[in-house]
Amino acid sequence: MPDFINAYFDAPNGLGRLMAHARLLNRLQSAYADAVPAYLGQASRVANYKQGIVVIHTESGGVAVKLKQLSPSLTDVFLGIGVECSGIQVRVQPGPEAPEERPRPQRALTSGARQGLGELASGMADTPLRRALESLLKHSA
Description:
It comes from Oryzomicrobium terrae. Residues 93-126 are annotated as: Disordered. It holds the Pfam family DciA. This is DUF721 domain-containing protein. This protein has 141 residues and is of the alpha+beta class. The chain folds into two domains: 2-92, DnaA, N-terminal domain (GMP Synthetase, Chain A, domain 3); 108-141, no CATH class. The protein has six helices and three strands. A three-stranded mixed beta sheet has the order 1-2-3. Strand 1 (44-50) and strand 2 form a beta hairpin. Helix 5 runs antiparallel to helix 6 (128-139). The protein is elongated.
């Protein structure tokens, strides 16, 4: 059964080409990770290989500049593992970042405001507005 699956994945059409390309990208990424300093490897990755050009995505412009300086030696590394590489293309592609959640400053009600809202709430019928005012007063204590 595993031979049948491997034959399906290795077929020249459809998934076969996709799997071959994925394996090539894995080889390139592995060689790339071994060739660059750790801080550059963590901030970038091999994204694609097309017509002899290795495309590398990075998270910042500073890292992109350093990678462009390293591109001749990276080309040699890729040639050394048997991949036809005529150039390196570096693109800045910021990764998804979660927006920073800043704690909201708690604002306290003045004693006059608390007293006024309390009087307003006590003079109202039992409505959603009254319950909201009472909740506000309770949480602002």
